[in-house]
Amino acid sequence: LNSYNTVFRGRNDSFSFSLNNLKLYGIQFWSPGATYTSFSDINLHLYFEPIKGIVDLNGYNLTTAAIMGGRGNYGYQDNTLYCGSGTITVNAYFTTNILLCVSNLYADKCTFIHAPYSAGSSSNVCTINQYTPVTFKKIILKKTSGFLGSVVINLLTDTPIDELYIDSCSIVKLTKGKTININRFTVSGNPSNLSTISSTTPGSTATINIPTDGYTGCDYVTFNDIIASGNPIYGGKHSSGTNTTNILFDYQDSTLSMNL
């Protein structure tokens, strides 16, 4: 099971499955009219591929190198992924479009983590890409044993995220000309390795909208071509920026950005 894909095919029916703590190589779902419901955490060496049909994680956690299939690998497929209230962790460091393949994604209660398991480079781009507006509860981009590389967040203008947390050494690019709505925005770097928030195209701005009751906590961050709308972003005294609007760098402590 560690060396082969597990493939679900069959009738247009409802199926339940449990992995009972097994770690599989990968899983594919191939029945366009079927619904697959998980009753355990899913832990994979490589790919999770909801190619056809409906997959319901049912509140359980998913750990995988990449989410593939559908749009990304087999042409357009009408596939659906219900994330529930669990945590999805994608731990690959190579170039990939994490959610490019999911036509219908329900993630409003889900925590999404990108945490590479080994060293990548600044040329490795991991794209979180959506075709339809999706509300994420939380997106966490963090460094584990390696360098995260560039993470291109390419979300539609009206796509809200309840919380975006970016760990040290991350490079995050927001799509030029787009507005990303975030309730809680936290970015941490360190004196040796600053985190970077920039637009996908140098010289063209992207916008981060923080609501009046939102929160930002940042320090050791470089902001390039970023506009803050709604509430200002408090960058912290060790941060800097070029071509920015409404980002404040002259505060002693970035936690002053919390609305009291």
Outline the structure in words.
- The chain has no helices and 27 strands.
- The protein has 260 residues and is mainly beta.
- Strands 3, 5, 7, 10, 13, 15, 17, 19, 21, 22 and 24 form an eleven-stranded parallel sheet that branches. Strands 1, 2, 4, 6, 8, 9 and 12 form a seven-stranded parallel sheet that branches.
- The relative contact order is 0.09.
- The C terminus is likely disordered.
Descriptors:
single chain, 260 residues, mainly beta, 11-stranded parallel sheet, disordered C terminus, 27 strands, 7-stranded parallel sheet, 0% helix
Structure described in brief:
By secondary structure, the chain is mostly beta strands. 0% of the residues lie in helices and 48% in strands.
Report how far apart the termini are: 53 Å
Q: Report the sheet with the most strands, covering strand number, pairing sense and barrel closure.
A: 11 strands, parallel
Please give the number of β-strands: 27
Number of helices: 0
Which runs of at least 5 residues are low in confidence (pLDDT < 50)?
119-123, 252-260
**Overall form:** elongated
Succession of helices and strands: EEEEEEEEEEEEEEEEEEEEEEEEEEE
- What share of residues are in beta strands? over 45%
Derived structural class: mainly beta
Estimated helix fraction: under 10%
Mean pLDDT: 79
What is Rg?
Answer: 19 Å
